[in-house]
Amino acid sequence: MNTSRTRAIRRPLAALTTAGLALALTMTACGRDEGSSGAAGQGDAVSDGAATGTIEVWAMGTEGDALQDFAKGFNEDNPDAKVEVTAIPWEAAHDKIANAIASGETPDVTLVGTTWMGEFAESGGIDPTPADLVDPADFYEGAWGSTEVGGTSYGVPWYVETRVLYYRTDLAKKAGWDQAPQTLDELHQFAADMQSKGGAEYGIQLPAGGTGSWQTFMPFAWSNGATLTNEDGTEYTLDSPEMTDSLEFYKTFFDDGLSPTRTLDAGELESGFADGTYGSFISGPWHTGLVEDAGVTQDQYAIAPFPGADGAPGTSFVGGGDLAVFSDSDNKESAWKFVQWLSDPETQQGFYDLVGDLPAVKSAWDTGKLADDPQLQIFGEQLDSTMAPPAVPTWDQLSAAVDSETEKATKGDTSPDDAVSAMQKQAESIGTGL
User: Fold this and answer.
1) 163-315+391-430 maps to which CATH number?
2) Measured between alpha carbons, how far is 429 from 196 in angstroms, rounded to an integer?
3) Per-residue model confidence as pLDDT tens digits over 218-261
4) Measured distance CA(288)–CA(15) in Å, rounded
5) Beta bridge partners of 382
6) Alpha-carbon distance 231 to 398, whole Å?
7) Cβ contacts of residue 242 below 8 Å, gap of 6+?
């Protein structure tokens, strides 16, 4: 395991604010979709030739702010086309997209939070991905899976992120660890040693519950063989021995005092990582900049793949964003050609250079900074082993129950077995929506 610490990931991504992270929890997750059942169906092929006409695009966050100028490259290659980007706040995006679909008054292309893919695909609001537009094998498997709903792909992954282990290398050395933990059992021992020998007040910081806490808990469950749905996404399957065992194990970090049970205030994780309160935590690429802004020097910490049941990497959560074309688009062919252009490896590298978004296309990682930076390569390694919730219409609703029941278990208000049973009961009451 390489425990050396290199420079932070490109600042536009690394310096996301805590508020931006909170919004990321609402849009989540591209990933290998548990409801995916093999080769996805596709829409009609797009014709050859240049794009034409106006292509109206909705995009959110940093991507929405940067895309208009970046799209000049597409306009140069397609002089008879004009891309017009409207930047939308993430907190308003879901309802704006849903209302546009309901009214039939839509733009052409939108960035989609991937836990919304099932809802918008089932409503008929977005089109299937055209045949031969892109090769699914060019993308991280986890990322492509997020576009598949009921066996059909409804978009193309644009950018990705995943969760890895951050840890203080200086405290780890004091605790007797010269490399990161490889297994989940080792992670528990690592946290205990960071606390008892390394000097950390808490060996690790894990969310006991709260909005989006499933994104940290589920890697423990996925790495232990748990699933959320059956293969075709028609039934939830939370109530399993693997899920219960995973929640029991997750609970031990709180029972043993290795992680606090309370919800941290904004900025508290970063400052606590800097002053040694927290010896480690699990998060995405934005935290490289945040911890350095808090005063952690580059030789004081490292990142490592999420531990697995039998060795690293385990199966981590994957997030990011997909691009979809509205069914009511007035310029579908050109819209899909714009999506195709954004999926080109060189284009993906260029967008990474601009805003720091990690490419969803694997070959974009083969040259330049993405290939040369050891830290980035850890994220790339983890992206080969990721999972996301199934792209079904009701996941956003059910995830709130998973968060709530996880918190009840970690805080001792209910047993892990009863918590998982309650998750399944809620799941069966709402169904997957497929």
Assistant:
1) 3.40.190.10
2) 45
3) 999 999 999 999 988 899 999 999 999 999 999 999 999 999 99
4) 8
5) none
6) 18
7) 221, 224, 225, 226, 227
Amino acid at 370: L
Greatest pairwise CA separation for the chain in angstroms = 66
Contacts of 90 (CB under 8 A, 6+ apart): 23, 24, 26, 27, 60, 61, 113
Q: Model pTM?
A: 0.86
Burial category of 102 from C-beta neighbours within 10 Å (exposed 0-12, middle 13-18, buried 19 and up):
exposed
Per-residue three-class SS string for 125-145 = CECCCECCCCCHHHECHHHHH
Q: Which parts of 46-151 are beta strand (E)?
A: 53-60, 81-88, 109-112, 148-149
Number of Cβ within 10 Å of residue 331's Cβ equals 20
Say if CB 60 and CB 97 are below 8 A apart: no
Residues recorded for the chain: 434
CB burial of residue 372 (10 Å; 0-12, 13-18, 19+): exposed
Q: Which candidate, 292, 248, 239, places its Cα nearest to that of 424?
A: 239
User: 336 is written with which tokens?
Assistant: 């899909």
* SS3 at position 71: coil
Residue 302 sits at φ, ψ, to 5 deg, of -145, 170
Both tokens of 235, joined, read 């039934």
| Domain boundary assignment for the chain | 53-162+318-387, 163-315+391-430
**Domain 53-162+318-387 fold:** D-Maltodextrin-Binding Protein; domain 2 (3.40.190)
Residue 37 pLDDT: 42
Q: Are 136 and 40 in contact (CB under 8 A)?
A: yes
CA angle 399, 263, 164 (to 5 degrees): 65
pLDDT(63) > 80: yes
> Which amino acid would we find at residue 54?
T
Same fold, 53-162+318-387 and 163-315+391-430: yes
Distance CA 133, CA 140 (A): 16
- Asked whether residue 198 carries a pLDDT value surpassing 60, the answer given is yes
Name residue 326's beta-bridge partners: 126
**pLDDT of 120 strictly over 60:** yes
